[in-house]
């Protein structure tokens, strides 16, 4: 039996980049799939409904053309229904595609996905899972960085990395450390903290390697914990964020764990893969090999 694929297009991703690339991406996938269903959705609910309908036709592969939010929805579907996932990035961040080492330009990524479908190249990666909540492929964060996320989601200008950079500067003015407990299977920390990031992969925020050693195939989550830090401390750390050297600062601590519990309710809101999860507390597990990737 041949490959039965669905192409999920999120036209608004990347300020229309997904819509502009859709026809060319479809043509490339159609060349190597025995059956291709194309679904286009503007809302999360619509996307999920269309994915389920495609699954009911006997789906093997879901190709997501869109940004990290679109990929996040594809991860939920594929992990829950044991369907292989392929990513054709067309957003402003494209953090998962970047972490997985694939092209971040849509047509180059579509060529790579088509070649992998034709050759049968597949691999499994870990996912994080919030207890009682969603899967995530990249990073769960809370504290200063989730406040930045909330601000970014309210901003309409500028686009791409500059939006995150401006949001970071704006949130510095509101900085206030909070009490935080971090518990893993081997230790428990109680401290005043500025932020915490739990990474299955390295990047968030449009290419910031917040968990620079994270490996989505090692069975562990990487934790980057920023302890109490002043505004001046954070200003000093900003230039090192893009290189991953922030983990060398004296007030930054890193951990590795299979399970991470964060609490209590200290006013922080958790985000995962850029989606709002809700207030702490939250527990997160690494689920090894939770999703199969094409490529």
Automatic annotation (TrEMBL):
One Gene Ontology biological process: phospholipid biosynthetic process
Cofactor: Mg(2+)
Pfam families: DAGK_cat (PF00781), YegS_C (PF19279)
Domain DAGKc: 1-134
Keyword Lipid biosynthesis: yes
Family matches, as PANTHER family: LIPID KINASE YEGS (PTHR12358:SF106), SPHINGOSINE KINASE (PTHR12358)
Protein name, entry field: Diacylglycerol kinase (ATP)
Organism: Actinokineospora auranticolor
């Amino acid at each position: 039996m041949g490959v039965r694929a669905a192409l999920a297009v999120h036209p608004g991703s990347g300020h229309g980049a997904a819509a502009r690339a859709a026809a060319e991406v479809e043509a490339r996938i159609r060349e190597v799939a025995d059956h291709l269903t194309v679904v286009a959705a503007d809302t999360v609910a619509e996307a999920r409904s269309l994915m389920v309908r495609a699954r009911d036709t006997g789906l093997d592969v879901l190709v997501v053309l869109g940004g990290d939010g679109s990929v996040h929805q594809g991860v939920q579907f594929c992990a829950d229904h044991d369907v292989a996932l392929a990513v054709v990035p067309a957003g402003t961040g494209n953090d998962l595609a970047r972490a997985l080492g694939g092209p971040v330009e849509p047509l180059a990524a579509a060529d790579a996905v088509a070649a992998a479908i034709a050759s049968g190249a597949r691999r499994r990666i870990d996912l994080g899972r919030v207890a009682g909540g969603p899967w995530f492929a990249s990073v769960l964060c809370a504290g200063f960085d989730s406040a930045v996320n909330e601000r970014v989601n309210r901003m309409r200008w500028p686009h791409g990395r500059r939006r995150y950079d401006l949001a970071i500067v704006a949130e510095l003015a509101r900085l206030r450390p909070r009490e935080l407990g971090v518990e893993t299977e081997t230790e428990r920390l109680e401290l005043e903290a500025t932020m915490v990031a739990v990474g299955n992969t390295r990047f968030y925020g449009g290419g910031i390697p917040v968990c620079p050693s994270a490996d989505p195939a090692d069975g562990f989550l990487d934790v980057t914990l920023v302890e109490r830090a002043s505004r001046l401390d954070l200003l000093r750390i900003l230039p090192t964020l893009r290189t991953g050297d922030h983990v060398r600062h004296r007030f930054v601590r890193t951990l590795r764990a299979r399970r991470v519990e964060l609490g209590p309710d200290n006013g922080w809101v958790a985000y995962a893969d850029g989606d709002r999860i809700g207030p702490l507390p939250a527990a997160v597990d690494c689920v090894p090999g939770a999703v199969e990737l094409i490529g």
